[in-house]
Amino acid sequence: MQRRKFLTALGALGVSGFARATDQVLPLLAQAAPRTRTPDVIFVPTPDDVVNKMLEMAAVTAKDVVYDLGCGDGRIVITAAQRYGARGVGIDIDQERIREATENVGRAKVADKVKFIQGDLFEADISEATVVTLYLLTELNLRLRPKLMKDLRPGTRVVSHAFAMGDWKPERTEFVNGSSVYLWRIPQRKG
Ligand SMILES: C[S@@+](CC[C@H](N)C(=O)[O-])C[C@H]1O[C@@H](n2cnc3c(N)ncnc32)[C@H](O)[C@@H]1O
């Protein structure tokens, strides 16, 4: 709608002015506009005992950079910073979740270690992660798997609450109060 109003205003410039202005301005507008789409899965928080198990299985330390893809209220990366002194990055497509996570990190007093980014996890730069945490769906894990393999360094730990990765067998599986937690490690690249 905003774009239509903008084009109407540009139309008032006349045909050649319109063409010149749209050529120059539209690419900038496209870059500036936040790209939002419906989340692939709704927000359901991981219970605290499962969060603790995920971080324990990944053997998180102060040297780690923990990425939670679809971070919800930020609890996983906040806990990683509080308990282990790790740096954390939470990515969520839902603006409301990012607002909530940002409030929570302020309360937890680890804002110097944790940041939140609104965006699509499938498009995010995750290359600096040493630990990736997930609570998505099996179908989303499978869609994400090629990106994990391509973008993450060998040895990076991936932990998932509840959902597996098809024929990529986990190195370890644990159960906490009826929830499963899976651990994988990004393998060395072939060739
Ligand atoms: C099941 S919740 C998990 C929240 C948190 N990781 C936890 O374990 O407590 C999934 C989250 O993924 C987010 N999400 C869904 N699709 C997404 C996408 N394509 N990119 C980024 N976040 C997404 C949702 O907004 C939601 O907050």
What does this structure look like?
This protein has six helices and seven strands, in the order αααβαβαββαβββ. The termini are far apart. Helix 3 crosses helix 4 (75-84). It folds into two domains: 2-32, no CATH class; 48-185, Vaccinia Virus protein VP39 (Rossmann fold, 3-Layer(aba) Sandwich). Helix 5 (95-108) links the parallel strand 2 and strand 3. By secondary structure, it is α/β, with parallel strands linked by helices. A seven-stranded mixed beta sheet has the order 3-2-1-4-5-7-6, covered by helices on one side. Mean pLDDT is 88; it is low at 6-22 and 25-33. The structure holds S-adenosylmethionine. S-adenosylmethionine (SAM) is lined by residues 39-41, 43-46, 68, 70-72, 75-76, 91-94, 97, 120-122, 135, 161. S-adenosylmethionine (SAM) binds at residues 39-41, 43-46, 68, 70-72, 75-76, 91-94, 97, 120-122, 135, 161.
Helix vs. strand class: alpha/beta
Query: What CATH architecture of the largest domain do you see?
Result: 3-Layer(aba) Sandwich
Number of domains: 2
Unreliable sequence segments: 6-22, 25-33
CATH level 1 class label of the largest domain = Alpha Beta
Largest sheet: 7 strands, mixed
Shape call = globular
* The CATH homologous superfamily of the largest domain: Vaccinia Virus protein VP39
What compounds are bound to the protein? Answer: S-adenosylmethionine
Quote the distance from N terminus to C terminus: 51 Å
Gyration radius from CA atoms, angstroms: 20 Å
- Order of strands across the widest beta sheet? 3-2-1-4-5-7-6
Amount of helix: 25-40%
**Percentage of residues in strands:** 15-25%
The helix-strand sequence is HHHEHEHEEHEEE
Question: For the residues shown, what is the average pLDDT?
Answer: 88
CATH topology of the largest domain: Rossmann fold
Individual helix count:
6
Total E-strand runs: 7
